[in-house]
Amino acid sequence: MLYLPHTEEDIASMLDAVGVDDLDGLFSMVPEDCRFKGDLKLPEALTEWELNDHMEALAAEMGVSPTHKVFMGAGSYEHYIPAAVSYLLSRSEFVTCYTPYQPEVSQGTLQAVYEYQTLVARLLDMDVATASHYDGAAALAEALLIAARVTKRTRVAISSLVHPLYRRVVKTYFEPTGYDLLELPYDNKGRTDVSDLEKENDLAAVAIQSPNFFGCVEDLEAIGERAHGKEALLVASFTEPLAFGLLKSPGSQGADIVCGEGQSFGIPCSFGGPALGILASKKKFMRSLPGRLVGQTRDLEGKRGFVLTLATREQHIRREKATSNICTNNSLCALAAAMYMASLGGTGIRKLARLNYDKAEYLKGELRKAGVPATFDTPTFNEFVVAFPAGFETTYGRLLEKNIVAGLPLGRYYPELADHYLLCATETRSKADMDALVREVRS
Amino acid sequence: MKESAGTTGLILNEPLLWEQGKKGRCGFSLPRRDVPSSPLDEKLIGEGPDFPDLSEVDIVRHYTRLAQWNFGVDTGMYPLGSCTMKYNPKTNERQARLPGFSGAHPLLPAGFSQGALRVMFELGKYLAEITGMDATTLQPAAGAHGEFTGMLLIHSFHKKKGAPRTKIIVPDTAHGTNPASAALCGYRPVPVVSNDQGILSVEAVAEVMDEDTAGIMMTNPNTLGLFEENCRKIADIVHGKGGVVYCDGANLNAVMGIVKKGHIGVDVMQLNLHKTFSTPHGGGGPGSGPVCVKKHLEPFLPVPRVIQRDGRYALDDDYPESIGKVSAFHGSFGVMVKAYSYIRSMGPDNLKKASQLAVLNANYVKERLKGTLHLPYDRPCMHECVFSDKLQTAQKISTMDMAKRLIDYGFHPPTVYFPLVVHGAIMIEPTETESKENLDGFVEAFEAIVKEAKEKPELLHEAPRTSKVRRLDEVAAARKPCLAG
């Protein structure tokens, strides 16, 4: 086996050094009645070449670009990834190291994560960003737990236009805690209806996603003022960080904690994971943040260097009193995002975000001309909701046969929106792709 | 000092990203604009982030230089105890990058995602077979996330019985994540102390187990690298009071094909695919922390679950007792592809062989280093062994000094100061992918360092010298945090 370097001779001499007769003899401390005597029922080993054939056959069963045109976003976005990013990310010094517990031999990861934290803080207009979390949903759950801890309140308002699957994760995290969730409805503009906040006086936080699940841009500033008026925190969630290359950042609109999904930044969709949970806050919540943080310091010769810091918040020091149980996070995904943000630069991200906005606007406009107007009259980014004529399921099925996924049917998540679809067009959808979709919808 | 392999090299300086670049550069090939620009309300437009503008060459050099300051498994032996830093096969990376997998949207209709669903279905089955359990969820994104999921399952189990419980037993040798995961689920961890043999006694558990205790979180083999010999009797006691036995599966690498946890009283356990199943750790993730359960906990597993019907695979949400979701989508799918590839490459015999050789390597290092270093529990170990700095304290040399000096010899240090039950712990997990020559080199380096501790202790106090930076001021970093530039 190519990963097992021991020769028979090595094994014999090592067993001799240990003082046992054979490999079984190594397990003397495992009681007889704990031992498994049979053979594992697993498929026999494949050669590297057989594995390639097998995996290629499985991968070929998937419906992906360029053979398939998928007009679906909803928290996972197809964007171009520069070859340089994929190439650099595969450097095995980044890939095959552990969490940087020994900083002297981990400066590459540490500086790269420090740069990631900085770029994220700049993107969101926040003071501090953590080294990463599992995904946007986990980051939101953690953000709301911070809010409950720092305000010492147990009730959280969450917009019904926060990604439905994120809300499901938050509910799961909250179930055993005794914290409770108030769901805010949405209005006919496709934005969160915050009028219920008037009667609430003990909220830890108001959680809003912008652009929201319908792609609509929320008025975070106005909602933030209402939240702050009740001494609740504004937690701003997002699924598409590229929007902040064009739109106002959550931090500039009064958010206290910002959390979301960074997959758009150089990370392939990969059937939903690994992803990148982004979590950032104002400085005053720094010591309440969960997970790893990288900080700058000096070595004994005065040279700049980086270390994991503020570890007294963390499980390996504080155990059950830690701010979270997180240990492994999604460091390599954070590196991908940093490399991607660096590739775009301030100039590039502006242009790319504008192009994404214009692509979705084009599709929206062409569908309107075809008699399928956007449901909500609010500015959107990348994605938007339309109501297709009743019975569109048949057309949707026919389009699948032509390898086109005409958006995400919303009825499953919002029963009142049967026949409504969430459509997405990023820079990867060409005008020709969009024209083809509109032609099919017309016919 | 004997010249060691892999200890010298070219280390180039490299400034921070925003200390370089020029306005107007771009490292991204902007797609051709084939649609007109549409109007947008000025009030919504922001200033755009203050990112440096860099060319592709700037970026490539930047990250190449940074990479060279890192030590990874591909650089050399990385015997970090509890972390199973085994070699990460390159074919796994290739498979996860296949466009069919990496390009797949998580909400694709089942007809467009049969390949991914099959990988998940089969992987879940393989993991259940290896652990002797009945069902698997792949949704947790890391080991601690799996522990938390396990706690939620236990919580739902007791709640359904109409008698929620408030406490859970956590031994003093546990990973820090165990009590933290339990606390996140509202449980108060009840500590139990291991005995003079380094394992749990039946009596210690019997004393604290009661009908308000949800169960026990055991790590077996434990963090001292010792097999919990009383595990069956302990499970009987916990079950006798209606509790659930959780096993932290971080140390599964010791027992594949040798012990099936499901056969020895374990009801639920998490696995760390980024440890046992060879997926890389990425400098701190992404990982993947599947949870395997026995039948009675299966109804509570997260949704959706992958099912097989008439040879086709589908996602099924219809489990009314499910705890819900712990990840937005399906978890770290890319990591699952790598673990699946590993299991298919190894087959059943090599998986067992891997565990046998992991245990052989640890025992070999233990035998060769005992005497040089103090061995607090002189017993046969499993996949890792724990020493301490007791013999060096007379020379005012600490575990940290020896760990840092190992860097100068071309090795990544072992885990230090954990487990907490051993003062000045040095926890060595060689893994099965290190050859005898590498282990001999590691032992000889340690012997040389212990000799230096007596003769030239300043070499240890001043170590490391060959790394990008010398010892860093962690106190200053925490006192005046600078977390962004």
Explain what the structure shows.
The complex is a heterodimer of chains A (443) and B (485). Chain A has 443 residues and is α/β, with parallel strands linked by helices. Helix content of chain A is 35%, strand content 14%. Chain A is built from twelve helices and 14 strands. In chain A, the strands form four sheets. In chain A, strands 2-8-7-6-5-3-4 form a seven-stranded mixed sheet, with helices on both faces. A three-stranded antiparallel sheet of chain A has the order 11-14-13, with no helix packed on it. Chain A starts with 7 loop residues before the first helix and ends with a helix. Chain B has two domains: 92-345, Type I PLP-dependent aspartate aminotransferase-like (Major domain) (Aspartate Aminotransferase, domain 2, 3-Layer(aba) Sandwich), CATH 3.40.640; 352-476, Aspartate Aminotransferase, domain 1. Chain B is built from 13 helices and twelve strands. In chain B, the strands form three sheets. Chain B has a seven-stranded mixed sheet, with helices on both faces. A three-stranded antiparallel sheet of chain B has the order 10-12-11, with helices on one face. In chain B, strands 8-9 form a two-stranded antiparallel ribbon. In chain B, a hairpin with a 2-residue loop joins strand 8 (305-309) and strand 9. The two termini of chain B are 40 Å apart. The model of chain B has no long low-confidence stretch (mean pLDDT 96). The chains are: A alpha/beta (443), B alpha/beta (485). At the A-B interface, helix 1, helix 2, helix 3, helix 4 and helix 5 of A face helix 1, helix 2, helix 3, helix 4 and helix 5 of B.
